[in-house]
Write a sequence for this structure.
């Protein structure tokens, strides 16, 4: 039976918000990742209930996509918690450069937050009275980190490995390397051989070998034809904003997403204009059962 240490709680969230991992011991309370902006009130309620009157001492972000750090500002205002972010993102956060932080490129929202220090590859954090090794995990995001506790064989994998896949390989959409980095981090995880993986999205799992096989197969499929990664990126972005709004017209989706850098670069790779590509991806979401289409209105099935 899969069992986590008593000092750890995992709040499994929907796909709009990343999972939150809360650590409580006698010396410190700490949270890894804070969910999406529109779920910040829910994140706060979950944390307050679990802490039962204690304050949150430390907040750690694996990476700064908006679904992993959108609750930061609210938690900082309430608790004054010390906040650690990946070192490569510190200039963009200090200047609050929403283009560099990808919020403009993806059409997503994140309230401005601050940081106290950075984490980088090779660091060790004390969470729940246990040592956690910080490891660079580029691929999905070039600045992402994962956390590994050798004592318990537990990996916090962020979006580097899910039970069924991994996050969109965004760098490849703009002509930068991402597939090779994703392959490398999957190999690192294989060598770590964790007992349990807590992903950024979806349930924690212990059949890590099978998950790695699925992820490697998925990566091979994308690498064989990079246009597949571009189509997947557009579909994921459309699904993301649909999860937030629950329903929107195709015209609104085209207006909201069509001019974003991620969509335009994906469309360029595919040789299709964004106004034609977005309805195609809406049809794929409908065929997959993730949405339904009523006239011009796309409605989330989740």
């Amino acid at each position: 039976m899969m069992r986590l240490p008593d000092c750890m709680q995992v709040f499994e969230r929907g796909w709009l918000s990343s999972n939150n991992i809360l650590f409580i011991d006698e010396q410190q309370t700490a949270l890894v990742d804070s969910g999406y902006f529109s779920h910040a009130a829910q994140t706060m309620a979950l944390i307050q209930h679990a802490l039962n009157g204690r304050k949150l001492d430390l907040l750690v972000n694996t990476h700064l996509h908006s679904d992993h750090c959108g609750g930061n500002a609210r938690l900082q205002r309430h608790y004054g918690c010390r906040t650690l972010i990946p070192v490569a993102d510190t200039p963009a956060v200090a200047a609050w450069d929403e283009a560099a932080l990808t919020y403009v490129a993806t059409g997503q929202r994140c309230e401005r937050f601050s940081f106290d220090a950075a984490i980088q590859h090779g660091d060790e954090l004390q969470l729940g009275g246990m040592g956690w090794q910080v490891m660079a995990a580029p691929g999905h995001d070039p600045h992402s980190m994962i956390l590994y506790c050798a004592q318990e064989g537990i990996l916090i994998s962020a979006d580097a490995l899910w039970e069924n896949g991994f996050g969109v390989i965004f760098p490849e959409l703009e002509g930068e390397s991402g597939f090779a980095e994703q392959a490398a981090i999957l190999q690192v995880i294989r060598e770590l051989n964790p007992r349990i993986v807590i992903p950024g999205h979806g349930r924690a799992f212990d059949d890590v070998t099978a998950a790695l096989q699925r992820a490697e197969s998925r990566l091979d499929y994308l690498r064989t034809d990079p246009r597949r990664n571009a189509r997947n990126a557009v579909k994921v972005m459309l699904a993301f904003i649909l999860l937030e709004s629950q329903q929107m017209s195709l015209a609104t989706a085209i207006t909201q997403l069509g001019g974003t850098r991620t969509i335009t670069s994906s469309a360029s790779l595919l040789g299709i204009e964004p106004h034609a590509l977005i309805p195609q991806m809406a049809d794929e979401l409908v065929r997959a059962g993730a949405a339904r289409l009523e006239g011009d209105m796309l409605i989330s099935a989740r």
In short: Residues 227-300 form a domain with the Arc Repressor Mutant, subunit A fold (CATH 1.10.10). The chain has a mean pLDDT of 95. The two ends are 29 Å apart (CA to CA).
